[in-house]
Amino acid sequence: MNNIVLIAGKEFRSYLKSPMAYIIAFIFLLFTGVFFVSYLSTNSYNDTSIRGLVDPLSLFGLGGLGNIFLLLFASIITMRLISEEKKLGTWELLLTSPVKDSDVILGKFIGSFGLLASILLLTVYYPILLFILGDPDIGPIVSGYIGLFLFGSAALAIGIFASSVTANQIVAAVVSFGIMGGLWVLGVIPQQIANMPTGLKTVLSYVSLSGHSIGFVVGILDTRDIIYLVSVTVLFLFMATRSLESGRWN
Asked: How far is it, in rounded angstroms, from Cα 115 to Cα 22?
């Protein structure tokens, strides 16, 4: 446990020392601020919710795709976690140290989640403004943030797995976003194929990321959505650990 905490603290401090973290936070807050205000103005301030934050593409008639922005930022955050150490040659030192592979993965995951959580917490002033200026429904706000954190954790786990299989940061980012994009598109395919068997549609919708995004936006906390996102997080953290184990013996 101590090793996990030490690694997580090291990773979080390294983010704070890098200008990249502040650039990511600035861009994220800039876009979410624009989408948040635009959604309210588009609805004549009658819909006092944070849908502009959790589902910004609904402004363009593409509701349910808002978490794609979060997936992209997660890819950027995690692309350096393991790839950079492999490139700099410090990875061999870590592998030869008395630290479990699972400790390394969990430490890096917690460190990156700390950064993502910090950025998301900076958006809390959006709902605060809503409560100051109006009378919003707290349900969709709470479920929206829960969805952001769960989607963020799943995206970070996928990104860490991608970073564990390559020494190139750009390749890691492309691979992680490719996996996330593939999981997202699985939910879109059934909508495009009218003659697809109902059973297959149900399976594709369940294993896709997009099939579990709408509930959080409208204020519904479905245990199936929560279990799915937690399962994706655990699965890809496990795969990243196995990737490290295979790299240790190779």
From this structure: 10
